[in-house]
Design brief:
It contains twelve helices and ten strands. The protein has 339 residues and is an alpha+beta fold. The chain folds into two domains: 79 residues; 233 residues, Bira Bifunctional Protein, Domain 2 (BirA Bifunctional Protein, domain 2, 2-Layer Sandwich), CATH 3.30.930. It has a seven-stranded mixed beta sheet with strand order 1-5-6-10-9-8-7, with helices on both faces. Bound molecules: phenylalanine (PHE). The site of phenylalanine has 11 residues, from strand 9 and strand 10.
Length: 339
């Protein structure tokens, strides 16, 4: 008996089936009703009792070896290696897969949020469809201001006026309405102006505006905040300069330039040989605006600033045509992979 077990094991070990059919043949030959193993188990009944334990053990072992091997062959050749219910061919090579990249406007926005977060500013957001009060009246725009004209603003309805916001200063008004003082917010968002589309202008663009209202806020605070922002954004060598300007909601008002990074201030085609690049508008919140929004201008003062994200991204990444931001051409977008 032991001799036969040995023989069967040896012959079995030489088998090398090449397809499912031959595996099935082997299975019938060894484990089938008249198979070698079945016969061995029949004969097992007749061996002396004292030998049963030992022989039973090797017999069972052989059976499980053969069963396992047949199972493995079946798996190798069988269709069942494919996941059930699909026609996926897992042996195919993977499809070339590329990660997307962040849009330059999102990159600049995220960076700005991080910079101002460090100074204690939190993000405040508001609606793109606004009323006259939040975009113009609460910001001290006179009745006859040209921005209120159809030529400059997209109106959805007239009287009462419903319009697409032309700046995110409207969100600052909302923060003054809702929040307790002191207020320190930055308002990123999309804005709309009725302008002809060109390399330098678009009817849709993005802004971030900041507002800080507290006791004893001074122009020096504004200047220091903006200097910090400029150095963080454009590099520690960056210088700033403020030029007097005018906005209905700030007094005094200024426009800020940063020194041109490309030529280091010597003058080049990017800065039009001035050494400076215009970046943002800013100023001390006009006391009228504070009063219009229920804030006592004798106790509180504040500063505000606002900038176009497309402009910042243009300066930072040397993009020369604003329209590229909106075309979603992957050849353009892919260039921002490493930022
Ligand atoms: N709201 C102004 C604009 O859209 C920018 C600005 C904001 C200027 C705050 C001064 C203070 O151009």
């Amino acid at each position: 008996m032991e001799e036969r077990i040995k023989q069967i094991r040896e012959t079995f070990s030489t088998l090398d089936p090449k397809d499912l059919q031959s595996v099935e043949k082997i299975r019938v030959e060894y484990l089938g009703r008249n198979g070698y193993l079945t016969k061995l188990f029949d004969d097992f009944k007749n061996i002396p009792n004292e030998k049963k334990k030992e022989v039973g053990k090797i017999l069972n072992q052989l059976k499980s070896e053969i069963t396992d091997k047949i199972e493995t062959w079946k798996n190798v050749f069988s269709e069942s290696t494919k996941p059930k219910g699909t026609n996926l061919d897992l042996s195919l090579e993977e499809y070339p897969f590329e990660f997307g990249t962040r849009h330059p406007i999102s990159l600049v926005k995220n960076e700005l949020v991080e910079i101002f977060k460090y100074l204690g500013f939190t993000v405040y957001e508001g609606p793109e469809i606004e009323d006259d009060w939040h975009v113009f009246s609460a910001l001290n725009f006179p009745e006859e201001h040209p921005a209120r004209d159809m030529q400059d603003t997209f109106f959805i309805e007239k009287k009462p006026d419903i319009l697409l916001r032309t700046h995110t200063s409207s969100v600052q008004v909302r923060s003054m309405e809702k929040e307790k003082l002191p207020i320190r917010v930055i308002c990123p968002g999309r804005v709309f102006r009725n302008e002809a589309i060109s390399a330098r202008a678009h009817c849709i663009f993005h802004q971030i505006e900041g507002l800080y209202i507290d006791k004893d806020v001074s122009f020096a605070d504004l200047k220091q905040t903006l200097l910090y922002f400029a150095k963080e954004m454009f590099g520690s060598e960056t210088k700033i300069r403020l030029r007097p300007s005018y906005f209905p909601f700030t007094e005094p008002s200024a426009e800020m330039d940063v020194s041109c990074k490309l030529c280091g201030g010597k003058g080049c085609s990017v800065c039009k040989y001035t050494g400076w690049l215009e970046v943002l508008g800013c100023g001390m919140v006009d006391p009228n605006v504070l009063e219009l929004n229920g804030i006592d201008s004798k106790i509180y003062s504040g500063f505000a600033f606002g900038m176009g994200l497309e402009r910042i991204a243009m300066l930072k990444y040397q993009v020369r045509d604003l329209r590229l931001y909106f075309e979603n051409d992957v050849r353009f977008l892919k260039q921002f992979k490493n930022y």
